[in-house]
Amino acid sequence: MIKIAICDDDKNIVEDIRKYIESYKGASFEISLFHSGEALIENKERFNLIFLDIEMNGVDGIEAARKIREYDKFVKIIYVTSYTDYLNLAFSVHAFGYLNKPISEKEIHSQLSEVISYFKEEEIEEKLEFITTDGVVRLAPKEIYYFEYIDRRVVIKTKDCSYSIKGKITEIARDMKNYDFIMPHQSFTVNLFYVKSIKGYDIFMMDGSLIPLSQKKSTEFRDEFNIFLEKRILS
């Protein structure tokens, strides 16, 4: 059962999306309807997928997504919008996709197929093995926020735990590059998926961490991050 929220202050659009979801064959859905960003935020329920309008009275879709990301980093968010400047939006809230109004049944079905495909991939996601001071740990790349070199050891930072391993941060960065990890500083390599924003020479991570961005690596890191965002939008 895939839990889906639809949030738009236009009740006709909410009903259209609901109707198109229900006509999709091959999966079961539990659908919740919201007509304001405030109602969605206050609900606090965790969903697998949210169809979210950008322009709403009161709390808009951008702010609603930011609030949701504070307690749910993994929900897929598909924006329903008339905007075309997607990159800046994706930069702050890691949107899964975008639908331009007016919305068609075909577009909804296409997005649902893609989301379901991602869910299947996540279920069988590759696990990487690390020899830590606490023993062998197996982690999927998406479980890791960043690696930090401290006192001749590398610390693996995940959502709930930190693990200490031996090794060189440069070698780890090389090994993790294929999983969208990039070095912004000689002591860090970060998962681009969890970068919330970049301001000056500070990288704000989704878990609240603040990672330094060296002047030397600034241009390369920003370019890699923009490429990462563009690939997510186009995929």
Automatic annotation (TrEMBL):
Keywords (A to Z) from UniProt: Phosphoprotein
InterPro entries on file: CheY-like_superfamily, LytR-like, LytTR_DNA-bd_dom, Sig_transdc_resp-reg_receiver
SMART domains (UniProt xref): LytTR, REC
**SUPFAM superfamilies the UniProt entry points to:** CheY-like
Q: Does the keyword Phosphoprotein apply?
A: yes
Response regulatory domain boundaries: 3-116
Per UniProt, residues of the HTH LytTR-type domain are 128-227
Annotated TM spans: none
Q: What's the superkingdom here?
A: Bacteria
Instruction: Extract the PROSITE patterns matched here.
Output: HTH_LYTTR, RESPONSE_REGULATORY
Q: What does this protein do?
A: May play the central regulatory role in sporulation. It may be an element of the effector pathway responsible for the activation of sporulation genes in response to nutritional stress. Spo0A may act in concert with spo0H (a sigma factor) to control the expression of some genes that are critical to the sporulation process.
Protein name as annotated: Stage 0 sporulation protein A homolog
Q: What is the lineage of its organism?
A: Bacteria, Bacillati, Bacillota, Clostridia, Eubacteriales
